[in-house]
Design brief:
alpha+beta, Thrombin, subunit H, 7-stranded mixed β-sheet, disordered N terminus
Length: about 375
């Protein structure tokens, strides 16, 4: 069982972690549909994960092969409530910065040839100037319900450029049901999302599998559709009494290392965002995700959306961010937002867990803050 003392350990200890197959006594419930997963745990008990088989991946490809099925998918079910862990953050070392990376130099040309039908839509989309699409300047409110927000890949220049193209829809297979979350690449072929998008702690079971579609817009996938290989998340997410009580542990990493018919990986096409950990809570951040709805007339799950606000501390290792995206679960909160550039800025600092019922519902998101003990531990296990 995970011990909370690990939160006080330095990153140098985390670097020594290894993983091993889970003892039967520690096993959690397997999905009630599909094939059993090969469960993996870190040797110190911090993280739990699974590795796919070809049967797992085939199940996902078969179930999600239809665009009609994907377009009718619903947001992942999640019980919103109070964020656990009142108090100040634990000291876990100095801030750490891991830069992002650019796609392959010929990525756009290869994508247009490989996914030609999707790119017909991209190329036919009416051009809008970047000046017309510019977001409002950030006002550092630092309080619930205060933010700027705007549609994102509804506009063509925010569809196939950095940092929006590294953000995509994550399809979650659960038996006959298909759900969606948001995920973002934070390392070559590795995405980060919310833990409740991979393991249902309210009912204690793994979902059946995942597909990541970067830069998806209105069902169009200009960079392909990618099936999963491995998943890891904090063991304390399993131990949470219910989903909203485990908010500070609500993060997961999933790898998508496979190549398409052209020999390209997902990061060959779109690159990846950087990540940062151990920052103070008060930072200007941009959250990018696929919302249920917003107050903007261009909203819903067809397009990605962006909120810009100053984060504030809600509880121990839990951040709040003013935003009118209802859920957009798993969406990245980006520090030093630097549009149209690779390897400069664009560090993911947290992900959306969800809203909290009450006066901030619908205008504020909450989620786990990246610390060396959580995101870097998960990254070491999955090979960031």
């Amino acid at each position: 069982m995970f011990t909370r003392k690990i939160a006080a350990l330095m990153i140098i200890f985390v670097l020594a972690m290894s993983f091993e197959s889970a003892p039967a006594a520690q096993a959690v419930r397997q999905p009630s549909h599909g094939t059993p997963h090969e469960e993996i745990r870190s040797s110190d008990g911090y993280a739990i994960g699974i590795k796919s088989t070809e049967a797992d991946r085939g199940l996902v490809r078969q179930a999600l092969s239809s665009q009609t099925v994907r377009m009718s998918a619903r947001q992942i079910p999640y019980q919103s409530g109070s964020a656990s862990g009142a108090g100040i953050d634990r000291p876990t070392g100095k801030p750490g910065f891991v830069p992002g990376g650019a796609p392959r130099a010929d990525a756009q040309a290869v994508a247009q040839a490989r996914y030609s039908e999707a790119w017909k839509t991209v190329n036919q989309f009416q051009s809008n100037s970047r000046a017309q699409q510019a977001a409002q300047s950030i006002v550092p409110y630092g309080t619930a319900g205060r933010f700027s927000s705007y549609a994102t890949n509804y506009f063509d220049t925010m569809w196939t450029d950095n940092p929006w193209q590294e953000v995509g829809k994550l399809y979650v297979l659960d038996g006959a049901n298909v759900y969606t979350c948001t995920a973002s690449l934070i390392a070559p072929n590795v995405v980060v999302t919310a833990a409740h998008c991979v393991f249902n702690t309210d009912y204690d079971y793994w979902y059946d599998g995942w597909m990541f579609v970067p830069a998806e817009r209105d069902g169009v996938a200009p960079y392909g559709e990618w099936t999963w290989d491995q998943v890891f998340f904090p063991t304390d997410w399993v131990n949470a009494r219910y989903s909203s009580a485990g908010m500070k542990n609500d993060m997961a990493v999933i790898s998508f290392p496979f190549t398409d018919g052209g020999g390209m990986t997902v990061s060959d096409y779109v690159g990846w965002l950087g990540r940062v950990y151990n920052l103070d809570a008060k930072q200007e951040l941009h959250a990018i995700g696929y919302p249920i709805q917003t107050t903007n007339p261009v909203s819903g799950e067809l397009y990605s959306f962006t909120c810009a606000a100053e984060a504030f501390q809600k509880g121990s290792d839990v951040l709040g961010l003013g935003c009118d995206m209802q859920s957009a679960d798993g969406s990245p909160w980006i520090y030093k937002f630097t549009p149209y550039f690779y390897s400069v800025g664009n560090y993911v600092n947290a992900v959306t867990s969800g809203g909290i019922y009450g006066k901030t519902w619908g205008n504020t998101l909450y989620g786990p803050k990246f610390r060396s003990y959580n995101i870097e531990a998960l990254c070491i296990l999955i090979g960031c």
